[in-house]
Amino acid sequence: MIPGAPINQLSGSSYHIITFGCQMNKSDTERVAGMLDALGAEVAASQDGADIIVFMTCCVREAADERLYGQVASLKNSKALVAVGGCIGQRDGAELAAKMPHVGVVFGTHNIASLPALILEAWETKKPAVEIISNKEAAELEYPVTGADNPVKREHAWHAWLPIMTGCNNYCAYCVVPYVRGREKSMPFEEVLEETGKLVADGVREITLLGQNVNSYGRDLYGQPRFAELLYALGESGIERLRFATSHPKDLLEETIQAFGEVPALMPALHLPVQCGSDRILEAMNRRYTSGKYLELIEGVKAACKAAGKEQVAFSTDIIVGFPGETEADFEDTMTLVRAVGFAQAFTFIYSRREGTPAASLVDDTPREVIQERFDRLVELVQQSAWDFNQQFLDTEVLTLFEGASKRNNHMLAGRGPGNQTVHAPLPNGAASTDFAGKMAPVLISEAKTWYLRGTLL
Question: How far apart are CA 319 and CA 252, in angstroms?
Answer without folding.
Answer: 18
